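Record 1 of the preview.
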Amino acid sequence: MTAGPASPQDAVLRLAGDLDFQTAALVHQQVDLALAGRPARLVLDLRGLTFIDSTGLAAIVYAWRAA
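->
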């Protein structure tokens, strides 16, 4: 399933490296900042991630619920 390409009205967060207990708080902050601009959609580009732990998955769920 694909959501299609991002449009100029979308907020796109490109994540790279590890999404874990050390970086999840930063993702929360960036999600909140992105959503403050009232985008049409919030797109999380996870292609650059090399590791996700349970805290990272919780950050993704946070983004989904916030959007």
